[in-house]
Structure formats: structure tokens, C-alpha cells
Amino acid sequence: MTSTLFIVNDAPYGSERPYNALRLAGALAAREGQQVRVFLLADAVACARAGQKVPEGYYNLELMLSKLLRHGEVALCGICMDARGMTEADLIEGARRSTLAELADWTAAADKVLVF
Predict the structure, then answer these.
(1) What is the CATH number of domain 2-115?
(2) Which of 25, 58, 78, 84 is 20 to 30 Å apart from 95, CA to CA?
(3) pTM for the model
(4) Is 115 helix (H, G, I), strand (E, B) or coil?
(5) How far is Cα 6 from Cα 50, in angstroms, rounded to an integer?
(6) What pLDDT is stored for residue 25 in this prediction?
(7) Residue 14: what pLDDT?
């Protein structure tokens, strides 16, 4: 099994970097023999906020992460959540609060690390 870690830093709708990261992560997670993990840092923690409302026809990162969670893991920097006033109650189902220590573990275990 090949393990890929995606580290996402940017705000959900400020640029297309989170969108492109999650598109690639989702495509990879759908393949046999792939382990995909996503760690959200800084403003990217808002990607996992439940109840996102976007204009019709616009991509929705909440839905993209929900699909990814069927095949992979999503964790968020707890300190980054605190700095933005987010709690675990704000998160989509399956995403969870985490630590830099876990990110370090995931990084050491990954075959590939992609940073967006």
C-alpha cells in the first residue's frame, strides 16, 4: 500500500489550492492500494467546517472532504482551530481535531508528502 499525505494551508475559498489538493486526494483515494491522509493547517481548517453554503455551480469543499472521508483520513491542527474560534462541533462528520505531533507521525510514515 502506498501512503500519501496532503498538507493544506490555504483558506477554503481564497484560492483554488485547497480545491486542487482535495481533487487530487479524492482521485488518489479512489484507487486500490492507496492510503490518503489530509492534514489541514492554518486557514485551511475552515475547509472542514460543516454547513458551507456556496453559490450554485461553485465547488463545495465540505462535500469534497466528505467524499474523501469514505476512503481516507482528515485531521485538523487544533491550535489553528483555536486561533479561528472553531470547535469540534463545527466540523463535518469524520474530520477530527489533531496535533502537530500526529502530523509529524503521518509525515514520517508517508511514502509521499504533498503540500498545498
Answers:
(1) 3.40.1260.10
(2) 58
(3) 0.96
(4) strand
(5) 20
(6) 97
(7) 87
Eight-state DSSP code of residue 31: S
> pLDDT-derived band of residue 69, with 50, 70 and 90 as boundaries?
very high
Locate cell 475547509: which residue?
Answer: 47
Kindly report the CA angle at 92 between 95 and 72, in degrees rounded to 5? 40
Are the CB atoms for 116 and 16 separated by under 8 Å? no
Q: What percent of the chain shows pLDDT beyond 90?
A: 97
The residue assigned the cell 486500490 is 32
Per-residue pLDDT of 90-109, as tens digits, reads: 999 999 999 999 999 999 99
Structural domain spans, the chain: 2-115
For the record, the C-alpha cell of 57 comes out as: 455551480
Residue ranges of the alpha helices (H) in 1-116?
17-29, 61-68, 78-83, 100-109
Give the C-alpha separation, 102 to 104, whole Å: 5
